[in-house]
Amino acid sequence: MSTAIAMLAALLLDRLLGEPRRAHPLVAFGRMASWIEQHMHADRRGKGVLAWMLAVLPCVLLTQAAQQYVPTWLAWCIAVIVLYAAIGLRSLGEHARPVAEALQNDDLDAARAAVGRMVSRDTAALNAQQVAAAATESVLENGNDAVFGALFWFAMLGAPGAVLYRLANTLDAMWGYRTPRYERFGWAAARIDDVLNFLPARLTAFTYALCGHFEGAVRCWYAQAPQWDSPNAGPVMAAGAGALHVKLGGAAPYHGVWEARPELGSGDPPSADAIHRALSLLQRGVVIWLAVALLLGLAMQGGTHA
């Protein structure tokens, strides 16, 4: 039961405070990871594995130790703060809503600038529908990476689980590219993130289906997800697009080159409304997860007393 209450408390903190404006732990971790990469980079998988362990495991062990040798109430408070730092539900809305508002005001330049803070593609080349698609895809994918994945591993392993997941996800974003520099060095970061995200991504996809157009979500999930490069982003975005009854995916520009990507979803072309509906889909999913966690906590508590 304490786990469910901690999840609720962390989400309330996120809603009230948003991401820390100064000294965000993930920013500090990113700097440390960059330092490790600078000193350890080599075109070898073994070096990448060692660098990943050096970056992540001390943080996980430190979190475990911080909770192990303090009173129970303080350990619970630490867990809440850790989970609060690991999730970014409010931040997603703060990034996505300006894109939708700019599109609603027919200000394409402002929409491109706003979506450029969410995605890595070349936003200057995007038209209004492509901007809306980029923002909607980012909300759906980051719903898993920045919300449900962290909640899942917190429920499984407590605060150390949330730290493990979020730092692994961050290293995947930094090192998990198929480029000459990271093809071998970043292999471990990409594969570990794939493993840690396997169950959360599918639970996220199912959550999107429950909160939207269920049949459309399931149909797109099974038909379109296998065509996507990422084994976890595919189910999440295909199910999310199907749940919203919107068309996503398709070609996108990266580093001056338009890359072919499979189409996702079906139905209406993306618009500002799709961005708002994606945020609502995510929020409804969070309510479901909290309800399930509280019910499971009550059931376990009742079983213990029995």
Helix proportion of residues, in percent?
Answer: over 70%
- Give the termini distance in whole angstroms: 15 Å
Query: H/E series, N to C?
Result: HHHHHHHHHHEEEEH
Strand content: under 5%
- Report the strand count: 4
Our count of domains comes out at: 1
Report a brief summary of the structure:
The chain has 306 residues and is mainly alpha-helical. It contains eleven helices and four strands; from the N terminus they run H-H-H-H-H-H-H-H-H-H-E-E-E-E-H.
Features of the shown structure:
4% strand; two-stranded antiparallel ribbon; mainly alpha; transmembrane; 306 residues; 4 strands; single chain; Cobalamin biosynthesis protein CobD
Describe this structure in words.
The protein has 306 residues and is mainly α. The chain has one domain (2-305). The chain has 11 helices and 4 strands. The protein has helices at 2-17, 25-40, 45-68, 72-86, 89-104, 108-115, 128-175, 187-211, 214-224, 233-244, 272-305; strands at 247-249, 252-254, 257-259, 263-265. The strands form 2 sheets. It has a two-stranded antiparallel ribbon. A two-stranded antiparallel sheet has the order 2-3.
